[in-house]
Structures are given as structure tokens and as C-alpha cells.
Amino acid sequence: MLTQFAFYALRPTIIKPLKPTRIMAFNLTVQLTYDATMSYLFGVNSLLYLLLSIIVCGSFYPAGHFLLEHLEVVRGIKIYSYYGPFNCVTYNVGYHNERHDFPFIPQSYLSLVKKLHLPVCECWVGIIWMYVTDLKLGANSRVKR
Question: Which of 60, 70, 75, 77 is 20 to 30 Å from 51 at the Cα level?
Fold first, then answer.
């Protein structure tokens, strides 16, 4: 769970790599310049802080979110939404079905769509716990599109 963000980020580059372009080179140059500036102004620990932030912020929350959206926990139901309190701080990212099925509804109105009684997960932490402890769930439970 702590490294899922790295696989989530690297998977597209392995599955369908893009040819390098000038904008990619420019982007890499800007990123490295930023890192060098941070290191120069605030020391190497500032880069370690940023790396730790990526690991902490990119581990359990996205892992629960990812598992929720891509595991077939209940047979025949492939995607779930989450209506819990974390939606307040994650810009309603838990409204997964709504974002895909109703892409033209503004994000601020997605909460109204939940009245349609779409499949729901009550807890992101619970889905992580199920993934770790339930022998029926695993890598083969992932829905492939």
C-alpha cells in the first residue's frame, strides 16, 4: 500500500511509453531546477521532506480510493462510490460513478446524483482492510477494461 502511488504513476510509461518531446524535456528541466533550488536554499532535508510527503499522501488514501474504484468486491458490481467525510477534503473524488456516468454535471452538484442509489463503499480504510485480510480479494479481483 505504501508504494502503490509509484506503480500507479509508472504503469502508463511501461504499458504505452511515449516518445520524448521538447515539452517533456522542458518539464524535466523545470522540475530538476526546482529541486536544485530547494536543495540550495533549504538544504537536502527539504527534498527528503517532499519525498516523505509524497509517500504519506500517496499511500493509504489513494490506495483505498484505487481499490474502491477497481476491485470487484461484490460480484457483478465493478465500480463503487464513496460518500464519507473524506470527500470534503478530496474535492468529492469519492463520487466515482457519478464522475464517469455524468461527466457534464459540475463537481459541486455531484452529491445530488447519489440519490440514484448507486453502489457505495462506506469506508476507504475498510476497503484496504478487506483487501489485506480477505483471501477472496487480490490482484485477480481487479477489473480490467
Answer: 70
- DSSP H or E stretch at residue 131: helix 124-133
The number of C-alpha atoms within 13 Å of 37 and in the hemisphere containing its C-beta is 6
What does the alpha-carbon distance between residue 23 and residue 6 come to, in Å, rounded to a whole number?
A: 22
Q: Are 94 and 66 in contact (CB under 8 A)?
A: no
Beta strands in the chain (DSSP E): 81-82, 120-121
Name the residue type at position 115. Answer: K
What is the C-alpha to C-alpha distance for residues 138 and 41, in angstroms, rounded to an integer?
45
Residue corresponding to grid cell 477534503: 89
pTM above 0.85, yes or no: no
Give the separation between CA 3 and CA 91, rounded to whole angstroms.
Answer: 23
* Calculated CA dihedral for residues 131, 134, 138, 140, nearest 10 degrees: -130
pLDDT digits (tens, 9 = 90+) for 33-56: 999 999 999 999 999 998 888 777
